[in-house]
Specification:
Blueprint (H helix, E strand, L loop, with lengths): L1 E7 L5 H15 L6 E7 L11 H9 L16 H4 L2 E4 L2 H11 L7 E3 L13 H4 L2 H21 L1
Parallel strand pairs: 1-2, 1-3, 3-4
Helix pairs in contact: 1-6
C-alpha cells in the first residue's frame, strides 16, 4: 500500500488538485486498492473550506470529481501515517518542517522532484494560471506514479 499526502499552503488549490489527479490516474490503471491518497495544508487560513471553485471546475472538465473535499491541516502524526509527504513548492517544505519537526526517513519531497526538470508548482491562487498548473500537476503525478510502480 502506497500512502501519499499532498501538501500546499491552503489545501484548496494545488494539493487537492494533485490528490484527485493522482486518484484518477491510479483508478484508470486499476490500482485503487494499492493507494491511500490525501491532501492537506500547512496553514490554518482555509480550514473547512471546499476546493476553490476554479480548481473544482477545471477538474470537472477532465471528468474528475473532488466533491466533499474540505481543507485540513498537516499534523505531526501524518509523518508516521504516510510513506511520502509531497509538497508543491519550497515554501511548503519549510512550513511543513515547522509542523513535522524533522524528516529522518526522507519522506518529504516536492512533486516536481519526480520529474526531469524539478522545481516548484506555481500557486494559481495568485497567478490564475489554472490550466498551466493542472498540466504541471498532471505531469508530476504521472512521474510520481511511475516512480511508485517501479519501486
Amino acid at each position: 500500500m502506497h500512502k501519499i499526502l499532498f501538501v500546499c499552503h491552503g489545501n484548496i488549490c494545488r494539493s487537492p488538485m494533485a490528490e484527485f489527479v493522482l486518484k484518477d490516474l491510479v483508478h484508470r490503471r486499476g490500482l485503487d486498492d494499492q493507494f491511500l491518497i490525501q491532501s492537506c495544508a500547512t496553514s490554518t487560513e482555509e480550514l473547512g473550506s471546499p476546493v476553490y471553485p476554479p480548481i473544482r471546475d477545471l477538474l470537472a472538465k477532465h471528468g474528475i470529481s473532488c466533491a466533499g473535499k474540505t481543507a485540513v491541516q498537516l499534523r505531526r502524526s501524518d509523518y508516521e501515517k504516510y510513506d511520502l509527504l509531497v509538497m508543491m513548492d519550497t515554501w511548503n517544505v519549510r512550513n511543513a518542517m515547522r509542523i513535522l519537526g524533522k524528516d529522518p526517513d526522507r519522506k518529504v519531497k516536492k512533486l516536481l522532484d519526480f520529474t526531469r526538470d524539478g522545481g516548484d508548482v506555481e500557486d494559481p491562487w495568485y497567478t490564475e494560471r489554472y490550466t498551466e498548473v493542472y498540466e504541471t500537476i498532471l505531469a508530476g503525478c504521472e512521474a510520481l506514479l511511475d516512480f511508485l510502480i517501479k519501486n
